[in-house]
Specification:
The protein is mostly beta strands. The protein has one domain. The chain has strands at 5-9, 14-18, 25-30, 33-37, 43-49. The model has no long low-confidence stretch (mean pLDDT 82).
Length: 71
């Protein structure tokens, strides 16, 4: 894993956070909020469209993240 990547496109008002660079698809889990999931169902990131229109003090991301030890 190369580390956490955060990208914000001000013009498109789009936030993307990637935990792991892996082939994944986006699945909408709430209005404007998407999980990046692998074919196995692992969440490897998330995206928020219209980010500045959300109340950032109250924005809740309905994500479940599991820690995996690097053995």
């Amino acid at each position: 894993m190369a580390g956490l990547k955060v990208w914000y496109d001000r013009e498109g008002d789009y936030l993307e956070v990637v935990f792991e660079n892996a082939p994944a698809t986006l699945e909408e889990v709430e209005e404007d909020v998407f999980e990046r999931r692998t074919a196995e169902g692992r969440v490897v990131g998330f995206s928020v469209m219209n980010f500045s229109k959300h109340d950032r003090d109250r924005l809740t991301l309905p994500l479940t993240v599991r820690a995996v030890s690097a053995a």
